[in-house]
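Dear support,

I submitted the protein below through the web form. The confirmation email said the job was done, but the results page showed an empty box. After a refresh the structure appeared. I'm attaching both so you can tell me whether what I see now is the final result or a partial one.
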Amino acid sequence: MIASALFALVLSGAVQAAPAAPEHPPIPLAGQAETLRRYDAHASQGVAVGPNDVYAVSNFTLARFDKATGEKKAEWVGERSRYPHINSCTLIAVERVQQLVCASSNYPAVPHVSTVEFFDPVDLHHIRSLALGLGTGSVTWVERHDGFWWAMFANYDGRGGEAPRDHRHTTLVKFDDQWRRLEAWALPASILERIAPMSISGGGWGPDGRLYLSGHDLPELYVVAIPNGGGVLEHVETWGMEAEGQAIDWDESTPGMLYGITRSSREILAMRVPLRPSR
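What the results page shows now:
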């Protein structure tokens, strides 16, 4: 009887399917990044790059590969319960020593808990954790720029989201050296409509001084600027790339080279992005 009643409800339209993810029609692009090389790396979240190495980021696993040969040189596997979602990493000089600095969270669990994890860039041993606490979102990338720490906190609709926040609450936060929050900015509507129902997965300042962001699914790079007034980032332009969103990293040893991943094959992609002067 219950099954018959449910079937009747479906036929009558009283029971409706969950809303489909929004469609994202093509938009005008400022240009297209050119993929120059691929690395077989089994990367699921993102990539980091240094002068001689590339790093695959895959939740609780990190791997270092020789940039020239693609040979795996080191691997770290953490406790899944402690490091469920390392989303991105980048090489940063911490107290004049290069470290692999990673954004980590408990995604898709809630409430959101975010940490910054520090690793040795050669053998990948874990150095320390910095707990960022709760209340802003799920941290997806961390950078050092202009003498400050910067971090993006993602928020989501549905799975991984912490109501009442949704993707519109994704926030860029600026911290001082003691990780005290100084300023924060929201995303403009033109980017929010592209990343919905997910969020920003990657980001970093390019060698042209501009901030580039990547979403979760679309092969797009969003160039943004800190506004002279107000609390919403300025959307300058959008570039196309092969990487379907996810975490990205600029190769500081080769200006114009951006690294990303493709989830379809889990390869690391080395891409060339034509640079423009900052505004």
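Response: this is the final, complete result; the empty box was a page-load delay. The helical segments are 2-12, 189-195.
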